[in-house]
């Protein structure tokens, strides 16, 4: 493949073709005016489109050269997906436009409540395979439809979700289309982490939830500062792997990887040598959620019901945008919230409600 195009994002996709691969046409016009922001009632604010100049850079990036890593029960392919200058522009654009959350939740273990404060900023968009959003991100009011009947979903389908499912905004749909084209996979969820400093982290875990199906494929795009990505086999302790994930790198995990391996982004005392912008890093993971519990799980642990944060360029940090998400509507049914902390909920710790990590 000599070239990857992204204009499938601009083409209308009818409801009866929502499950098909995106159509790839001519490249975007670099001189065209910027696209309007993506809006939806479930968003806390309009989400800016990627600049037209950046869309052109993404479209004209040279094709990646994949490299495969093979160890027992491990199937990983990684690419230098975008050149560093392009990836840096993408990082800065997404960081300034997306809503983020610093989720706090309480896990009930036996009779004891344990409060967990997520050590990074998170956000998520998408819905499981039982539903889909009509139209594309150029539509302001995309309806949530049933995948079989193509009619509005029953009102109680997502009654256990802390907020209504949110369609993937245009700035992330562009990337999803590119990753789908490169990998041959289909994704319906986009999870985003922002690591504000080297002390932000994610503990060892595996994305082996039943709602992703057996042997799920998960694609992970790194933007910004280089961070160590550690892996270890669940059974064979001698099997480990350490990768320094760099700006613009795409990591694709498939096969038995999630069933047999754990992965993490550990805390560090300083940013890796040669990286930039105060250690800030965005990680975007693309997933295919097959079952209804997937939606409730991802929104509970990556959005919840608390404050929205946005990047404040004047202060050079994430800042409080609003005290509560505008997604807290009558359709959002929250679990026993702590009235003293609007971003805290009490959750039973069971295998059926396993925490889904976002790295």
Automatic annotation (TrEMBL):
Binding locations of substrate: 208
Positions with a binding annotation for 2-oxoglutarate: 193, 195, 205, 263, 281, 285, 287
SUPFAM superfamilies in the record: Clavaminate synthase-like
InterPro entries in UniProt: AlkB-like, AlkB-like_sf, ALKBH2, Oxoglu/Fe-dep_dioxygenase_dom
Pfam family, one: 2OG-FeII_Oxy_2
Ranges of biased composition (kind: Polar residues): 1-10, 325-349
Gene3D superfamilies, sorted: Alpha-ketoglutarate-dependent dioxygenase AlkB-like
GO biological process: DNA alkylation repair
Coiled-coil stretches: none
Residues of the Fe2OG dioxygenase domain: 186-290
Segments of skewed composition (Pro residues): 30-39
GO function terms (MF aspect): broad specificity oxidative DNA demethylase activity; cytosine C-5 DNA demethylase activity; ferrous iron binding
UniProt protein name: Fe2OG dioxygenase domain-containing protein
Species name: Orbilia brochopaga
